C-alpha cells in the first residue's frame, strides 16, 4: 500500500506542477485552487507512504515521478523540446525510479 500512496503522490505532483502553468502567478482563481488542492493531496499521500518507506527513497521516487511526468506533458501540451538527448535524460531518471523501487525492501 505505501507504494500505491507514493505513486498517487507523484501523480498529484504532476498535477500541481502543470497547474502552476495555468494559475498565471496565482491570479486565476480556479486553476489556483486546483493547484493548491493537488499540492495538499500530494503531500498527504507522500506522508502516508513515509510511514513505511525510507525517506530518501520515497522522496527521490516522488520527485522523479513528478519530474518525468511534468517533462513529458510539457512536451505534449506546451511544445517543449523533445530531442533525443532530453528523452535519454528522462529515461535515466525513470531508470533511477525503477532501480530505487526494485532495491528498496517492503
From TrEMBL:
Highest taxon, organism lineage: Bacteria
One Pfam family in the UniProt entry: Multi_Drug_Res
Keywords: Cell membrane, Membrane, Transmembrane, Transmembrane helix, Transport
Principal cellular location given in the protein's record: membrane
Cellular component, GO, one term: plasma membrane
Localization annotation: Cell membrane
Gene3D superfamilies: 1.10.3730.20
Membrane-spanning parts: 29-50, 57-78, 84-103
InterPro entries: EmrE-like (IPR037185), Small_drug/metabolite_transptr (IPR000390), Small_multidrug_res (IPR045324)
Molecular function per GO: transmembrane transporter activity
Membrane-protein topology: Multi-pass membrane protein
Keyword DNA repair among record annotations: no
A biological process from GO: xenobiotic detoxification by transmembrane export across the plasma membrane
NCBIfam families in the record: PRK11431.1
Family the UniProt entry places it in: Belongs to the drug/metabolite transporter (DMT) superfamily. Small multidrug resistance (SMR) (TC 2.A.7.1) family. Gdx/SugE subfamily.
Name of this protein: Guanidinium exporter
The encoding gene: sugE
